Amino acid sequence: MHAVHNPARARDIVGESALADAALVDRAVRAAAAAAPGWAALTVTERRDALKAAAGAALEDFENRARLLTNEQGKVLWESMVDLAGAPYLLRECRRLIERVAAEEIVDDERGRFVRRRRPVGVVAVIVPWNYPVLLAFNAIAPALAAGDTVVVKPSELAPLALTAVLHAVSAALPDGVINVVPGDGAQTGHALAAHPTVRRVMFTGGTAGGREVMRAAAESITGVGLELGGNDPALVLESAVVDDALVTALRNSAFTCSGQVCFAIKRIYVHRSHFGDLVEALAAVTDQLTVGDGLDPASSIGPLISAAALDRVQALIRDSAEIGGTVTELGRKLDPAGWERGHFLLPHLVTGIPQQSRLVAAEQFGPVLPILPFDTENEAIALANDSEYGLAASVWSRDDEHAFAVARGIEAGTVFVNVHAAGASDHTTPFGGVKQSGIGRINGWAGIEELTETQMLIRRDDAANLPGPPA
């Protein structure tokens, strides 16, 4: 068994989780494969009813699960509630797509009949990160179920408890074997799941290094993969922007929600030189309002980092920024100074005066430290934004919408927001995913259905005699 610790009180054990070996993974995949034909054969009405029941089950014991999620992951309670609410919301929204999944496009013409339809892929592996485990799991689970697929889910070993509780409840509302859970780590459990020859699609959300390992494991069986990987999201504050409380508060909230541990949080800010001093000053003022503490305490704005290793990594980036001559400003307030060292707490930091090539600017820091750099021309800003191996999301800030959209078109990212950069800005109707080393494929709404089904063509040719072939 694996002990799950509270990031706010690192010695406290929140619960225990198993570590599934390859044999247990095989049992889970076989159970999903056995359930797949029956689940795929349900009528539209039957599957819609099943997802309605699943959405209701996902809401059970909501407050206790939210507290459990905060205890194991560290984030403040309202964030855990948003995370948990994602499961019933996504099940309900994907339920609306089932009729479209079942529909066939039929063309009858002089050539014959052409039927285009979608088939479920079969068994889908869902490998989940620790930062928003429930929401991000159901980003794949909900469209998979709507598409007629069965699912095997591997929660993160760092935050498996709340997600597993939700999965057990949802599974009980569905036929046996439709949802299966294999707790464990990436090296053993995740690898066995991604490499299993019966799995036909792997949906992975996590770091880029982990995504590479998933691709390697899946390649042996030519298994399809959907990868939502790391990001180093730039925010471009143009000369035409107005630096006011609304703008800097939005930047702060994007950068520091969940202590910066969000894949498409703002990770670096580029601001026109004419606004640089004002923006740094205003952003520092609103960031200094944040209180860091136990996520269950309503006085906390943000909680701890997930682990000691994460804390060490982010602190190393801060030290490196100072050592190369950057101005590092520590902000915010400690909620409980006496208990600070018992958790993986870190106050928010703003960093200026470091070059584009510095480690902090180039990395996905995944923590509460934010570099701010000036630019002189928009072409320079676009080049700086694109100077990254990542391309998940970005944002452009301006009071001139058309101008902002024109700049946005030059940025290499799967999603570019205008005058917003926040969770929920890319809603369920909007395809979401990265370019470059930020991923492969898209999730959300119909895009998720397309990832988790195969197009099948049924063809009858009435003009077969006219098709090319050897002479009689």
Briefly, what is this?
By secondary structure, this protein is α/β, with parallel strands linked by helices. About 40% of the residues lie in helices and about 20% in strands. The longest helix has 19 residues, at about 20-40.
Characteristics:
40% helix; 472 residues; alpha/beta; Aldehyde Dehydrogenase, Chain A, domain 2; 22% strand; Aldehyde Dehydrogenase, Chain A, domain 1; globular; single chain; seven-stranded mixed β-sheet; six-stranded mixed β-sheet; 2 domains
**Major β-sheet profile:** 7 strands, mixed
SS summary, helix count: 16
Apparent shape: globular
The CATH superfamily of the largest domain turns out to be Aldehyde Dehydrogenase, Chain A, domain 1
Mean pLDDT across all residues, rounded? 97
Query: CATH fold name of the largest domain, please?
Result: Aldehyde Dehydrogenase, Chain A, domain 1
Strand content: 15-25%
Number of domains: 2
The helix/strand class is alpha/beta
Strand order of the largest sheet: 13-15-16-11-10-17-18
Report low-confidence residues grouped into runs of 5 or more.
Answer: none
Overall number of strands: 20
Helicity, in percent? 40-55%
Tell me the CATH architecture of the largest domain.
Answer: 3-Layer(aba) Sandwich
Distance between the termini: 71 Å
CATH secondary-structure class of the largest domain: Alpha Beta
Query: What is the C-alpha radius of gyration, as a whole number of Å?
Result: 24 Å
Organism: Mycolicibacterium diernhoferi
Family: Belongs to the aldehyde dehydrogenase family.
Domain Aldehyde dehydrogenase: 3-457
Pfam families: Aldedh (PF00171)
